[in-house]
Amino acid sequence: MVGAQRESGKQIIQNAVEYMKENNLLVDIAFIENGPVDAAQLDELHRLIGWDKKGRRTTAETEEMLRVSHFYVAAHTTDGQLVGFARVCGDPYIAQVLDVITHPDYRCRGIATECMRRVLAHLKRSNYLSVTLTDGSGIEDFYQRFGFQMMEDDAIARVWRRGTEATQELEQTSART
Prior knowledge:
Blueprint (H helix, E strand, L loop, with lengths): L2 H20 L6 E5 L5 H10 L10 H10 L2 E7 L4 E9 L3 E9 L8 H15 L4 E4 L6 H5 L22 H10 L1
Parallel strand pairs: 4-5
Antiparallel strand pairs: 1-2, 2-3, 3-4
Helix pairs in contact: 2-3
């Protein structure tokens, strides 16, 4: 972040912490919606929870990720450490909730719950026709509290994984079409 943004970001966090203290809410955590986020801290948080074991994320890509997100919420400690995050991406009709993460040292304190409450408030203000969330955490009950339901076992959703396509078969198919 540039100097002016860093100062305004710190001030925003301090103001949010004061509000939280006054209202007895997670007093040492500030939640900021669509505000400044240190991309390097977000990359580190992804690595810390095991979502970027190979270190492929770059600061530039993370900044672009933030730019194209429709909504995001970041949770910071009073000293500015990023300890929670969630975001919404998509188009005007379809959205996906992504990156609901909490620093391991700060879990079970309501950080992910508050992030999801804010995501849900954004979703309710929007006109999305469909909202999905892919969960591999094994804590399905957590997301059900916010209205996310498991899809049927015979759902047609599919996942594309890089390098798993049948290249030779695709080449033959494209030659015929």
